[in-house]
């Protein structure tokens, strides 16, 4: 254990001791330290540098059947004692809730941390010059692509951070871990003939600096994608095949996850209520929640309640296998807890590349971006704004914009006909490109 983790663990243990001394029956404490540097380069010059470091303590208090959760950033001993005393007084004034409990200690089983590879020392050692060099390289590459004269502005952002966490609970949980994160993103605006200024970006988010793509590659991708948006128009409305690009698929999948969580399930506001063991999607869909993914952006050894991380299928070949339940909603539903929040959501890839899926489509839509919209977790009805490209005779054609796809989640996922082999890795939602049949597309 590193000194920073030891210090946080000691603070958590001291706070836990103090809560017991003040009269709390049970408690859980998480302490954290986070450092972040954001550097922004815009149109050939440095635009912004912001560095921040924060510490925080979160306490969950259980006493006389009552529960409360509070946060503070002031970890000085005197201030912490006052904070915990006031927090406990507030909890005692709340109504009892018998469903609020700590996890069963059997759920605190330890795992081997090195296998996760969440911390890269090279990120902590990054210099200001190294950040600027990457940002400049992104812009230079973007301005070197064909039709670069159509570029109006380029904004490149580089964010690097490291964090340490320690957690303890009065019924035996104790754990620490640390993480690093690097986010590189060039965004390019171009001038269209009708005066509009479409923009596009490329993004890479990684745990280890060595996994970051070359900055020039990111710059070229952002500029090329933006220039390809020139002249985008609406397509005629029609029911047609829709192919969703891998990096855009997370914009669809996140609407599938909300109905799998405890609150909508317990309040009977989930389209997946009572659906465990039933087919809810095409057999081509397998969706796994994997908090133990090596260098995963959502990976951790334990969740917010201290429950040891476990990989589990949520949907397996179209069949619903599990919900995402924290202890509170699991108690209310009379079910075993899993975890309250998704971690790394992995869609099992298929065998064919995106171009091969395109060749199967006589006329359809390739979605490269979701723009707003809504999805009802109770009924599954959705309407989502999209942009992308028309597909004609297996080839990508003119760019399209200001379009919508609509329907219901259950019907849409039953129409999943193909999954590509190109998972997009720079997100906690890791999905390949997805092909759906007979989707309602609204345009002109």
Q: Your description of this structure?
A:
The mean pLDDT is 95. Helix 4 packs parallel to helix 5 (215-227). The chain has helices at 3-22, 77-92, 121-124, 128-142, 215-227, 250-257, 262-266, 327-333, 354-359, 409-414, and strands at residues 26-42, 45-63, 66-72, 151-169, 174-190, 199-201, 204-206, 238-244, 287-289, 312-316, 319-320, 345-347, 363-375, 381-392, 395-408, 416-419, 429-430, 434-442. It has 444 residues and is an alpha+beta fold. The protein is 23% helix and 36% strand. The protein has two domains: 3-227, PmbA/TldD superfamily (PmbA/TldD fold), CATH 3.30.2290; 234-444, no CATH class. Strands 1, 2, 3, 4, 5, 6 and 7 form a seven-stranded antiparallel beta sheet that branches. Strands 8-13-14-15-18 form a five-stranded mixed barrel.
Fourth-tier CATH superfamily name of the largest domain: PmbA/TldD superfamily
Strand content: 35-45%
Number of helices: 10
The CATH topology of the largest domain corresponds to: PmbA/TldD fold
Question: Can you lay out the helices and strands and say which pair or pack?
Answer:
Elements (H helix, E strand, L loop, with lengths): L2 H20 L3 E17 L2 E19 L2 E7 L4 H16 L28 H4 L3 H15 L8 E19 L4 E17 L8 E3 L2 E3 L8 H13 L10 E7 L5 H8 L4 H5 L20 E3 L22 E5 L2 E2 L6 H7 L11 E3 L6 H6 L3 E13 L5 E12 L2 E14 H6 L1 E4 L9 E2 L3 E9 L2
Parallel strand pairs: 8-13, 12-17
Antiparallel strand pairs: 1-2, 1-4, 2-3, 4-5, 5-6, 5-7, 8-18, 9-10, 9-12, 10-11, 13-14, 14-15, 15-18, 16-18
